[in-house]
Write a structure and sequence with these properties.
The structure holds two protein chains of two kinds. By secondary structure, chain A is α/β, with parallel strands linked by helices. Chain A has seven helices and ten strands. In chain A, the strands form two sheets. A six-stranded mixed beta sheet of chain A has the order 6-7-8-3-9-10, sandwiched between helices. A four-stranded antiparallel beta sheet of chain A has the order 2-1-4-5, covered by helices on one side. In chain A, helix 5 packs across helix 6 and helix 6 packs parallel to helix 7. By secondary structure, chain B is α+β, with helices and mostly antiparallel strands. Helix content of chain B is 73%, strand content 9%. Chain B has ten helices and four strands, in the order αβαβααβαβααααα. Classes of the chains: A alpha/beta, B alpha+beta.
Chain lengths: 224, 269
């Protein structure tokens, strides 16, 4: 299986801060489901940000989807991002847009027709158990429902890589289970690579997964 | 209500800027012809020992555009000295030459003084009458009105720009989150700013139309009934159809710059 993410001696840090991730070397293959855990402030989210180009590597190399993230230009980064599905703890939905419009945002950006967008929105909203709520606005939904919209949006363009930052951090058990089911299915049925940053790996998880952990010093280990 | 408020808060400052611009254009047109009128009505009188041609005058000062020699017989007639033909002929021969000079521009008082001193350098010229006090009072009144009006226009435009800056802060607050999310999912700069551009362009068009309509009314109602000769004499200059395009271009330029500044200042978290 080809590598989707390859890091070699990767070091990450914010402008004036000290290094957060130090000399990380790892690779993630197509179809892998990866959990990244670690104490608060260890750099889990920082690492995830580097995968979608929100943070440039300070040193070392990082290749995502065949693109070198060191010095990547805007055009390539935009192109890469249209093939990623990203889920955030705070959902990052567009509050003035309906649920349906939020779900098809990646399709709209890529210029898909209205018919394709409508069909895909219907299918995904059925998957995330939000049928009938397509014309509601995010702030009219519960936190769990909003996160399901976020996951539907991440899945809408069949991305090759899903990146999720604490996707169940604010959710009740029911919503958390729905989210994990969706991600398991994406990985298992569509062979999508999934990388999830979380504090806690779910007790019941039905597919094989890899587990990376980051210690307080910013070193990454594969533990499972 | 929120929708209308959002549009009015951009349309209002845009109209302020466009009114300033259109007033400036109209003022420039009308004062230009007024200046030409003042210039045409003004002439200085020069007395010389020998005859002088226009080139002789121009050699001393390039502002001189037209020279007219005043007939000595007419001068004598005015002085009521035409009773005795022989005496008149003798007197006429002994008189110096009188010229009325017209200038090529509406000069300031200082420039007028400079023309006078240039001409005085000629040993042939005996006397120069510039009628400076009449000229000066007209010039100063005109300059004062011009300055007051231009200050008002500049002030109005500055206020308009401040209101637009304020509106840009509102836009940033309302649209930043959406643009950040779109950027994360790979939207181009154009797509991210599309909503804002559409809204701003509509407001620019509305503002240009409203401003044009105000000036159309100003031209066809107020100016027609007013006593302001300067405007009535130049009624065509008060509002021209082509001004709509100037206003539209200015409004679109201002809003596009404002949108661009908002969009490039939205940084991904």
């Amino acid at each position: 299986m080809p590598n989707v993410i390859t890091a070699n001696n990767l070091t990450l840090g914010y402008e004036s801060d000290e290094e957060i991730i130090k000399n990380a070397t790892f690779s993630i293959k197509k179809g892998d489901f990866v959990f990244i855990t670690g104490p608060s402030g260890s750099g889990k989210s920082t690492l995830l940000k580097s995968f979608y180009g929100n943070l440039a590597p300070r040193s070392g190399s990082l290749v995502v989807g065949g693109l070198d993230m060191v010095g990547i230009n805007k055009k390539n980064l935009q192109e890469l991002r249209t093939h990623l599905g990203i889920v955030f703890q705070d959902y990052k939905l567009i509050n003035e847009w309906t649920v349906e419009k939020n779900v098809v945002l990646p399709l709209w950006i890529s210029g898909y027709s209205t018919e394709v967008q409508e069909t895909q929105a219907k299918r995904l909203l059925h998957h995330v158990k939000l049928t009938g709520k397509e014309h509601k606005y995010p702030l009219e939904l519960s936190g769990g429902e909003q996160q399901r919209v976020g996951v539907a949006r991440a899945l809408s363009k069949n991305p090759f890589l899903i990146l999720a930052d604490e996707p169940t951090g604010n959710l009740d058990e029911y919503s958390s289970n729905v989210i994990w089911d969706l991600m398991e299915n994406a990985c298992h049925q569509l062979d999508t690579t999934v990388v999830v940053v979380t504090h806690r790996i779910p007790m019941v998880f039905n597919i094989p997964y890899r587990h990376f952990t980051i210690d307080e010093n910013g070193s990454i280990y594969e533990v499972h | 209500m929120k929708f209308i408020k959002g549009h009015i808060s951009l349309i209002f400052p845009l109209i302020a800027i466009l009114l300033g611009l259109e007033f400036f254009i109209v003022f420039d047109r009308t004062t230009d012809s007024f200046e030409k009128g003042l210039q045409a009505g003004y002439s200085m009188i020069v007395v010389s020992k020998d005859e002088m041609s226009i080139d002789d005058f121009k050699a001393w000062d390039s502002h001189i555009e037209h020279v007219e020699e005043l007939e000595k017989s007419k001068i004598l007639k005015r002085l009521n000295m035409n009773k005795d033909k022989a005496k008149q002929k003798k007197f006429e021969v002994s008189l110096p030459n009188f010229y009325s000079l017209k200038l090529n521009d509406y000069l300031t008082v200082d420039e007028l003084e400079a023309v006078k001193s240039n001409l005085q350098k000629s040993s042939n010229i005996i006397s120069i009458e510039t009628f400076q006090s009449a000229y000066q009072s007209k010039y100063e009144l005109f300059s004062f009105i011009k300055f007051s009006f231009q200050t008002f226009i500049v002030f109005m435009t500055i206020i308009g720009f401040f209101l637009i800056v304020k509106q840009m802060e509102v836009w940033n607050y309302l649209h930043a989150q959406r643009m950040k999310v779109m950027e994360i999912f790979g939207a181009s700069l154009f797509l991210r700013s599309k909503v804002l551009i559409n809204m701003a362009l509509i407001d620019a068009i509305i503002s240009a139309i409203l401003t044009s309509w105000l000036f159309y009314l100003f031209k066809n109602s107020w100016v027609q009934g007013s006593q302001m000769e300067i405007l009535k004499d130049n009624i065509e200059g008060v509002f021209k159809f082509s001004d709509i395009f100037i206003l539209l271009f200015a409004a679109i330029t201002v809003v596009l710059i404002a949108v661009f500044l908002v969009v490039i200042n939205v940084k991904e978290e």
